[in-house]
Please model this.
Amino acid sequence: MPRRAPRAPRATAPHRQSDSRTSTLLISACPGPPVCAAVHTYLFVDGLDVVARSNSGMAGLHPRQLLRPGGPLHPTDMPRSADVATEVRPGSGPDPLTIRVRLRGETVIWSDLMYAGPDDTSVEEVRFHLGQYLNEIERAYAALQHHP
Model:
């Protein structure tokens, strides 16, 4: 029987919002050695690891860099680019993984994405409810304070 290619990691997301056009963000962090080479952030959108699905040779940036108050993932009315991951072995590949983050009313929009969705179609943009998005960033950042 032929072997199937391994699928990218998947996380169980909290209860999904009722509006099927909005996504759910879940953030976790790898603690670094001995588990892996360095501390890095996992960004799960609707249970899918965005970094691994975008480029399996990359790892999310350090959570203190991404999640700090006013940091790159915090939305503003003015769209901005946010580096969220880099090559595991620097110098071995393309530029950092960059997404565009913007706020429109009560919706946070990530664009300039390119990863395989659950049905293997290309995901280029996701939308989050502002409250769920900010609560998840704050929860993940607070968890860092207990586990440096």
